[in-house]
Design brief:
By secondary structure, the protein is of the alpha+beta class. It contains 9 helices and 6 strands; from the N terminus they run H-H-H-H-H-E-E-H-H-E-E-E-H-H-E. A hairpin with a 3-residue loop joins strand 3 and strand 4. Helix 1 runs antiparallel to helix 5, helix 1 runs parallel beside helix 6 and helix 3 packs across helix 4.
Length: 263
């Protein structure tokens, strides 16, 4: 008999909401400190400059508020763990929408306006509200978890491009780590490999002999930031192994064919 289908992970909506607002605030405070030379640097995210990446983060907040302003959808179509696989075809559309929405306003002004609109919208709507989104309908609670991925990953992008030590909220890091670990398990279901990202996530994946007790024969372990970089294509599997940022044991403990999950 095949194993029972695992229920999607649930998240505490209030904690996720607080994490999103906190992480957006960290980026907003850092962006205020950027000078013209730093803003003009390449961000290493496509062809965006640091200024364009920073504007995109403001758009993340503004688009969340805009999505909540639209009439709700009837039924959720996507869970948080399914979201990474629905984003690839929308990259160009998102970039154009961000450009049109934000225009050429100064970054501090963009952040103040977008942050205020997001905070007000999140105060008004419950986690069970179903949002009508480009990628498909999602509950606000699940969509907010995807915002932790966007915010934390782009915080890392900004840190590397500018040299600023921008804080990462622990709850935001936990939520995005778990979402991307669950996405891996969804992409390659099975129980032959255990992927550990302490202290936030453990999942089993890849078809093959299922582990039942004791130490699993195939184990991958890494830290949360390295996991996010692997899952989003910011670093490669071979490089992470060479730099000892990933520990992999067992003949099946090779995730190179499954990564990145999104870019």
């Amino acid at each position: 008999m095949p194993p029972a289908k695992k229920k999607p992970r649930t998240y505490d909506h209030a904690r996720t909401r607080a994490a999103v607002l906190t992480q957006f605030g960290h980026v907003r405070d850092a962006v205020r400190e950027l000078d013209a030379e730093q803003l003009a640097r390449p961000s290493a995210v496509g062809e965006w400059s640091v200024a364009e990446l920073a504007a995109h983060v403001a758009w993340i907040a503004d688009s969340l508020a805009g999505g909540l302003a639209r009439p709700p959808a009837a039924v959720a179509e996507l869970t948080a763990a399914e979201w990474p696989f629905a984003t690839a075809s929308l990259a160009g559309k998102i970039a154009e929408a961000a450009k049109e929405t934000l225009g050429g306003a100064p970054l501090p002004e963009l952040y103040d306006g977008a942050g205020a609109r997001m905070a007000e919208a999140l105060e008004t709507h419950p986690g069970g509200r179903v949002m009508d989104l480009w990628i498909g309908a999602m509950t606000l609670a699940d969509f907010l978890v995807t915002r932790t991925v966007e915010l934390v990953v782009h915080t890392e992008d900004l840190r590397r491009a500018t040299g600023l030590d921008i804080p990462i909220d622990r709850q935001a890091l936990a939520a995005c780590t778990r979402l991307l670990a669950d996405a891996l398990a969804l992409k390659a279901p099975g129980g032959s490999v255990e992927v550990r990202v302490p202290p936030f996530a453990v999942v089993q994946c890849i078809e093959g002999p299922r582990h039942t007790r004791g130490t699993p024969p195939n184990v991958v372990e890494t830290d949360p930031v390295t996991w996010l970089r692997l899952a989003t294509g910011r670093t490669g599997w071979a490089a992470a192994l060479d730099e000892a940022r990933v520990r992999a044991s067992g003949e099946r403990a090779d995730l190179s064919a499954l990564l990145p999950l999104m870019s």
